[in-house]
Structures are given as C-alpha cells and as structure tokens.
Write a structure and sequence with these properties.
Elements: E1 2-6, E2 9-14, H1 21-25, E3 31-36, E4 48-57, E5 64-71, E6 75-82, E7 85-94, E8 97-108, E9 115-122, E10 128-134, E11 137-145, E12 155-162, E13 169-179, H2 184-187, H3 194-204
Antiparallel strand pairs: 1-2, 2-13, 3-12, 4-9, 4-13, 5-6, 5-12, 6-7, 7-8, 9-10, 10-11
C-alpha cells in the first residue's frame, strides 16, 4: 500500500497476505509496495547519488526485507533490513550464476527513529565505486566494488519488498532525490517531517 502525507512524503506498508497481481499470475507469493524509477537514468561508470530521509515501523521482524534496489539485467544492489539491522549487498553474475556479497552491515535501527541516508554509486562490473553516509557519518567507502554488468538501462526501486509473510511493516520516505551530485545532503540534510517530530515527542512523554 502507498499513501502520501504531502508531496515530499510517501508511506509504504506491507502486511501478511499482500500480493501484487503480477506476482500472483506467476504463482509468486511476495509482499511488495514499491516505486520504480524510469529505466536508463543510471549509467555505467558515471556517478549517481541518492538521498532520502526514512523511518521504519516494525523493524524487529525476522527475515529479510529490501528497502532500496538497483536493477539492470538482474538486481545489482540492495539495501536490506535484516532483524533490525541495515545490510548493504551487491550482486554479480558469474558463469550464469547470480552471486552476492555483503559489503557493509550497519548498526540496529529503532522504530520511529528518523534516518538520513546518502549514497554515491558508480556502477561498473569491476572497480565500481560506492559511498554510504548515515545521519552525516560515512559508513562505507570503496572504489573496488564489483557492481553488476556494464551497459545502460538501469533503474531503481524504493519501498518494501520481501519473500516471506512476516506481519506488518511500514516505511516512510521523505525528500527522496536522485542526481549527479547530492553531497550537500550529507552535511545539510533536508528537514525531518513535522509528523515524525510529533511522534517522537509523544513517545518520550
């Protein structure tokens, strides 16, 4: 389910039993609520930046849920929620087999807590680049990442996606941007939505 509080805030929610009709036709029982970018906006060997504010509700569930993905011929990069932790994972095909590598595991998330994420990627089959900032602090940086295959046609997906029925999970995303340079969002993040601030105040009273 998708809903909007205002033009800059999107709420994603998945519940046990939710299915996209396209998956149902293929007899796939996945839960998903996602927004997809236009194909081709992410080029090989060129920097692309993503930045957004996010908060999650239901983070202590078992299993794996994707909150952000990049696709080309197959999935190349994912940010996953695994039992309350953020996992950054890259993918590559070798001998027609899709292999993955966990490049970083971040500390635990807390329900209702705002997170500011900024990512710089330069997709490339070898010697790709990746930098990740969380709340203004650099989590990870590498210029030797194997990231997918060369060529154009990439697109991104933002939201929630999982292969198991694990109960309700909510992701709220504010001020999502994609561009050639969003480094200013590291030191000068966009304001947290007022509704998030009110929720935090209410919960600590």
């Amino acid at each position: 389910m998708l809903s909007r509080e205002n033009t800059n805030l999107v709420r994603f929610q998945i519940c046990s039993g939710d299915e996209w009709p396209g998956d149902t036709k293929r007899n796939i029982r996945y839960n998903r609520a996602e927004l997809r970018s236009q194909a081709g906006i992410i080029a090989t060997n060129r920097d692309v930046w993503f930045a957004w504010n996010m908060r999650l509700i239901g983070t202590r569930q078992r299993g794996t849920t994707c909150v952000f993905q990049i696709f080309h011929e197959y999935v190349e990069f994912q940010i996953q929620l695994q039992s309350g932790r953020i996992v950054f994972r890259t993918y590559q095909k070798r001998n027609n087999r899709l292999t993955s590598e966990v490049v970083h595991v971040a500390s635990a998330l807390a329900d209702y807590t705002p997170e500011c994420l900024v990512i710089r990627l330069r997709p490339k089959a070898s010697q790709g680049h990746m930098q990740v900032w969380r709340n203004g602090f650099e989590l990870f940086s590498s210029e030797t990442i194997n990231l997918g295959t060369d060529g154009n046609g990439r697109y991104s997906k933002l939201g929630l996606y999982r292969k198991q029925n694990l109960g309700s999970l909510v992701s709220e995303v504010a001020d999502m941007e994609l561009g050639e340079d969003l480094s200013h969002r590291v030191t000068n993040p966009s304001p947290i939505p007022e509704s998030w601030i009110k929720d935090m105040y209410t919960r600590i009273r």
